[in-house]
Structure formats: C-alpha cells, structure tokens
Amino acid sequence: MARNGWHILRDEDRVTVTRRLPVRFDLAVEAALPCDRDVSLRRVAQQVRQDMWRRLQDQRGFIPAVEVRRAPGGLVIRAGGGLPHPVSAALRDRLAGLLDSPAHRTRWIAHAGRRADG
C-alpha cells in the first residue's frame, strides 16, 4: 500500500520501500550492516532511501528502491532503483560509497533503534 507516495512492502524478515511497483533494481548495490540489537527495518530503509536520494537526485528518471532484510549478525541492505538509462560504474560507486559510509551506518542504526516497529 502506498504511504505518502511510497510503497512499503513487508515480509517476515524483509522490508522494501519503493516509489513505484513493480520494484526495479536496474542500479543495485548490497551491503552488510552489522547490528546486534532490534531495529525497525522500515526505519532503516527510509533513512537509506533519503540519503540515497540526496546523493543521486541529479539522475533524471531515477526511481529509488531500498530493501532491508535480517541476516545472521545484522542486516543486508540492497539500495538502488530503476533508471531509464544504462548504469555507469561511477554511479554504482557513488551509491556504494554511501552504503560504506561509517557515519551514515551509525546514524541509520541509531535512528532505527529508537522504536522497533517493523
């Protein structure tokens, strides 16, 4: 169901936030995020989506999507989305840099740990 223009898809151990259905990951970068406490997957996904949008908002036609799933020892984040043009290595590197940023990772977990709501 769309909430404020965003679709939030929930499975048992996975949340996907996307602007449009069906979800497309023409651009996709995955990263493992160590986490030893209970956090809201939706909140992590929303924070990653916001930061990804700030970093990639110059990409015309970009349709953001973020999937966060539980894994042993933490979370796995898949970020990216749909693009109307081929994905360059530079664009993939920009997104990978965001997912590897220690400051962003710390903020995502701190924000999501305030309330475990899914």
Q: Would you write up a description of this structure?
A:
The chain has 118 residues and is α+β, with helices and mostly antiparallel strands. It has one domain. It is 32% helix and 32% strand. The chain contains three helices and six strands, in the order ββββαββαα. It has a six-stranded antiparallel beta sheet, with helices on one face. The protein starts with a strand and ends in a 6-residue tail after the last helix.
* Quantity of strands, as a count: 6
Alpha-carbon Rg, integer: 13 Å
How many angstroms does the end-to-end distance come to? 15 Å
Q: What is the element string, with H for helices and E for strands? A: EEEEHEEHH
Arrangement of strands in the largest sheet? 1-2-3-5-6-4
Percent range for β-strand residues: 25-35%
Mean pLDDT: 92
- Class inferred from helices and paired strands: alpha+beta
Please bin the fraction of helical residues.
Answer: 25-40%
Give the uncertain stretches in residue-range form.
none
Oligomer status: single chain
Number of helices: 3
Q: For the report, how would you describe the main beta sheet?
A: 6 strands, antiparallel
Number of domains: 1
User: What global shape is seen?
Assistant: globular
